[in-house]
Amino acid sequence: MATTLEKVDVITVGVGWAGGIIGAECAKAGLKVLGLERGKERSTKDYSLVHDEFRYAIRYDLMQDLSKETITFRNSRKMRALPMRQMGSFLLAEGLGGSGTHWNGHTWRFLPYDFEIKSMTDKKYGKDKLSSDYLIQDWGVTYDELEPYFDKFEKTAGISGENKNPFAGKRSSEFPTPPMKRTPILKKFEKAASKLGYSPFMLPSANLSESYENPDGESIMACQYCGFCERFGCEYGAKTSPEITVIPTARKTGNYDVRFYANVVEVLKKGNKVTGVRYIDTQTGEEFIQPAEVVVLTSYMMNNAKLLMVSGIGEMYDPDTGKGMLGKNYAYQVLPGATGFFDEQMNVFMGAGSLGMSIDDFNGDNFDHGDLDFIHGASLSITQTGVRPIATNPLPPDTPVWGEDFKKSSIYNYTRTLNIGGQGASLPHKENFLSLDPNYKDAYGVPLLQLTYNFTEQDKNLHKYLTEKTAVIMKEMGAKTVMAGNPITNYDIVPYQTTHNTGGTIMGASPDNSVVNTQLQHWDAENLFVLGAGNFPHNGGYNPTGTVGALAYRAAEGIVKYSKAGGSLV
C-alpha cells in the first residue's frame, strides 16, 4: 500500500543539470520544489580519493547499477533485444548531479543550422537530398530565440572559451572566463589546421581556467589539470557541476529539498493533467505517492521516455505506420578520427576533460554538401584529457597483441600517441527508435526500455569522409605513422563510444510532430514538462549539455509562468 505524502508545487524526477536548473529557478520564484533522486547525495568532499582509475573509470562507481535496471538492445526489429549487462556504448549516471558529475565538461551551443535543419536543407539542396526514411525536422525554436538561455547557462557554469569560431551563432556576450591553456600538443594541432586553411579555436570548457563567482553567488575553482575528469567527480570543485552551482542555489532559497533513494516508477495522470508520481524507496522498499502541481521529468533521456511509456502518457511510435511520437527520432553519434604515432614524448598524462582545440569547418552545413552523399558533419577536435594507464594501450599497426614486442611498444607509445576525433551527427531514421521491452523487467517490476538502433548509410558516408579529413590533419601535425579509423559497419552496444543519446521525447511546434512544445510542456498533460537531450529532434556535431542547459532555462521560465498563471499552455 503506497503512502501519500504532502503535495508540493513542483517535482523534478532526477537531480542533474536539468533538475538542478529547474529547482533553482522555480525555488527562486517562490515555488516549493522537491527533487526526487534515485541515487545518493554527494559533493566535492566525497572525491578526495577520486584519482582511482580502477574504481571510477573501470568499475564505474558513479554509474547506474545495471543489475537493477538496464536497457535492452537490438540492431533491427528482426532481432531479439538482449539486456546490456555491463556499461557499454554509453554511461548511465546515478546520484546527485547525474551525468553532470562525471562529464568532461565540453559545453557547446548547437549551430543555428541544427534548429532549422529541415527547412535549410530543403532550401539549399532540395527536398530529395535524403530519402523519406530519414526523419529530419525543425525544432520549432531558432538559435536566436535560444541565445539568451545559452548565455545564462554559460554564466551560471562560468564556461571558459574564446569567441573565435567563425561558424558559431552570434553571441550576446563573451565567455565568462578565458580559454584554458594552449599546451604544446594543442599548438601542434592549431598550426597544422591553420596551415590547411581551417579555423582552429579553443574548445568551450566547464573546467575553468580561473576562479569564478557566478551570478547566483556560487564559487567555482580554477582547474588543476590533473587529468581525472570523465567518469570522475572533481575534488577541487573546478569542473562545473550541478552540486556546486544550481543545487546550492536552490537550497539557499529555503524552497527546495532533495529526497534521495527515490526511484520514480510511474507518473500519475488524470484527464489532461498529471497529479504526481509514484516512487519506491530503494533502501526500504516502501512505496510512496508524491502529489504535485507540476511534474518535470529531468532524468536521463532514456528514463524520461521510459517513464512516459510505462505511464501511458502519449502515443508510442509505430515504425510501420509512422504514427505516434513517443520513442521516435532516437539518434546517436558517429566518431570519425585518426591516431598519430610520434617520435617525440609529450605530457599526455596531464590535462583536463575539456582541454582541447577544435575546428568547425566540417560541422553542420559549414561546407558544401551538394556533391556529397550525406548532410551535416562533425566538430573535429584534439583533446588533452589526461591519458590514464589502465585503459590506455596505444599500438601502431602490425604490433603483436602479446609478448615482449607488445609490452615494449605499449610503453614506448604511451606518451607518443595523439588522437583527433570527431563527433559526427547521427540523423534520425524511421527504424531507429525507443520502445518498451516485452520480455525483460527491472528490479522493481517495470519493463525495461528497448533500443532499436543501427548505423545508416548517412552515418557511414559521413564517417568515411570526415575520417579522411582527420588523417590529413594528423599527417600535417608530423606523425610518423597515421592510423585512420576503420569504417563503421553495424552499431554495437560495446565498447564505450559516447553518452550523447538524443530523441524519443522530441520538441516541436505542433503535437503532430513532437511530444512536447517549445517550452518542453507535454502536449497531452499541461502540467507535465519533459526535459533533456531526448527533446532534440536530431543529434548534432557537439556534446549536448550546453543545449540541454539552454532548454532547461527556457523550460523553467515556462514552468514559473504556468504556475503563476494558474495553468494553461505556455
TrEMBL record:
Belongs to the GMC oxidoreductase family. InterPro entries: FAD/NAD-bd_sf, GMC_OxRdtase_N, GMC_OxRtase_C. GO terms for molecular function: gluconate 2-dehydrogenase (acceptor) activity. Residues 428-552 form the Glucose-methanol-choline oxidoreductase C-terminal domain. The keyword Transmembrane helix does not apply. The keyword Flavoprotein applies. This is Gluconate 2-dehydrogenase alpha chain. It holds the Pfam family GMC_oxred_C. Its EC number is 1.1.99.3. Keywords: FAD, Flavoprotein, Oxidoreductase. It is an enzyme of class 1 (oxidoreductase). SUPFAM superfamilies: FAD-linked reductases, C-terminal domain, FAD/NAD(P)-binding domain. Residues 142-324 form the Glucose-methanol-choline oxidoreductase N-terminal domain. It comes from the Bacteria.
